[in-house]
Queue: 4 jobs
Job 1
Amino acid sequence: MSSSLGRRVPPWLFAVGAVAVLGIAGLVAWLAWPRPAPPHARQYLSVSACLLTDQAGIVAGSPAAPVWQAMESASLSTHVMVSYLPATGPADVSPMLNTLVQRNCGVIVATGSASSQVLAAAKANPHQHFLLVTAPGTAAAAATSNTVVVSQADAAGRIGQVLRSLAANAPPPGS
């Protein structure tokens, strides 16, 4: 009578077993490997600042590009949410301003050459705050009580002030 205990296990079976063990160990190591923490979502205050641009939008070299950059920079430190809308033409400025008023923007920042339309919107919406950024060499428009007119050169500093003021007066998060 021969015994099965005395038989040798073929070497290829050891190789298959070793590969299986290494594969399982690799899978366990991959599953247990620490992953970087997911990025935290920014917590914004319940207030926003909105930018209305001309057709060029916020692309580099456009009049609104440095204004948008200043708004984003101020948003990082104040947690005021910022957004923008590009007007597709002069006829769209008034409807776009009305859209931003309906969004309850804490301040509407406007760039471009439609200062008369911005001032008309300011007169029609006395509860809304406006910041009109004028191009270099443009005559300053007659501001209303709810509109501040600044030059392109002074825009970044003024935007920072406005967003800090919005943040200081914003209701606490979650209220």
Job 2
Amino acid sequence: MNAFRLIAAALALVPTLAVADDAQLVRGQYLVTTAGCNDCHTPMIVGANGPERDMTRMLSGHPEQLVMPPLSARPDAPWETVASTTFTAWSGPWGVSFTANLTPDPDTGLGRWTLKNFKDTIRTGRHLGRGREILPPMPIPMYRHFTDEDLEAIFAYLQSIPAVKNRVPEPLPPPAAVAAQ
């Protein structure tokens, strides 16, 4: 009889756990939306009413087929930043950064990342928490303030969206750094 009660008690918890998972996904979607992740990580296209997000490539980062030409010259100060028409490539004093693929694709996105990898990236401002620096315009100084629960919800949501195979290029150094090499 003890085993029966133990199994019954365990089964009684199952619906509660499913609701908690749904609540975490809803919270993650809310945080991704309000943090503006789509603003840079979802490519823009020209639609019937002008520029709009291409939601068929939601959060897939800079389109791999869009090869950016070298920037001939940045505008004079006080202008410092130039963005691609897709809003997925950014050039400034740091060089050129390309927004990452945040979808769960295992080869080109976050599909092989762990929650620890994700948290470490946001907390340290370094790829996988130990690699290259995460470059502007990514607002790492602000995102470091997310709680562990927030980051867990964001990561859970990102793992739940459709995977998009899209290999984003590596960042490019600033022209002065290239000339010095």
Job 3
Amino acid sequence: MDADLLKIVNHVSRQKIGMCWHCSACSGGCPFVNHMDILPNHVIRLVQLGQRKEVLGCRTIWLCVGCHTCSCECPNLVDIAAVMDVLRQLAIHDGIQVSEKDIYRFHKHIYRSIRQHGRLHKLEALMRFKLSPGHLFTDLPVGLKMFSKGKLELMPTNVEDKGDLDRIFSYYDKRRRSFESYE
């Protein structure tokens, strides 16, 4: 049992996980729950119990897409999607073997695109993701359909003030490093 896990997750996510009643509304609303090994409300319970190894090693934290449906369903306004994000960051920090490697790689390409342009350039992120494992043409029909409907722009649009972007990323990099200074 890790007595500090709850404090760390509360601090970095800025949530009060103790407010969770375990009513299962988050799990009932999650569109991906059928693919998860642990229900979202059980993830919260594992954090409350300090079960660091179990919660950081589960697939659920990687399958969460951050749609915030769970957070909207919570009667106590616990932002479960924010908690899942912190748990992913903590798993990486702790060197836990990522159970969903493709999802982790996808996150890295999305982050890189947003970091570079200030917003997501979908085509670039998807191409980088598809190039790295050598599966460039596996989703070609879907990609062409998205392109024909104007969902994929050829050129990225960049934010005007890169200074603001740098400040935002610096702030969150500092928060991520606050795993050691959560008090």
Job 4
Amino acid sequence: MTEAQSAVGTEEAAADMEAARTGLEGVVEEIARGRATERDLEGARRREAEEAEEERLRALEALAGRTQERVKAAGVQKARKAAQKALEAYVAACMAHNEAVDEAAGAFLSERDLPRGYAVDMGGDGHSVVVGSGSIRRTRPMVEVRDMGLEVLGRHLRGGYISLGDDAY
């Protein structure tokens, strides 16, 4: 349902409600003059209640239509597929990175005497290969993907709370 259709439906509903109220007021006047009965008043009240319910349903239908249009425009499924594709590429790159570090570490460890500036550093979160004045660490894709996701969510949840600690999982 478009906004124009929604506006027309709302205008029609408002006109129907006004007509029902006018009819109800007319019945009340007729009762006061003795030309109508309580039964006529009950019928007018029932019609007014029916009109109010129809108005409520039209408003809900209009809201549902606008929500569906906005959800479709948001493109969550398309964005999800793109994000999954990007994550697949990132994790594959991390795995290739770790494979290269592991191969180098294996080769370094198989050497008897490594020249100065070459070593394998065995840390608590895995190993790294020392080459000259720098080192090449293994990546931790699960931790990095989690942290990236939380960082992005934090930026989008203006003022919202996201724990970056281990207690968040």
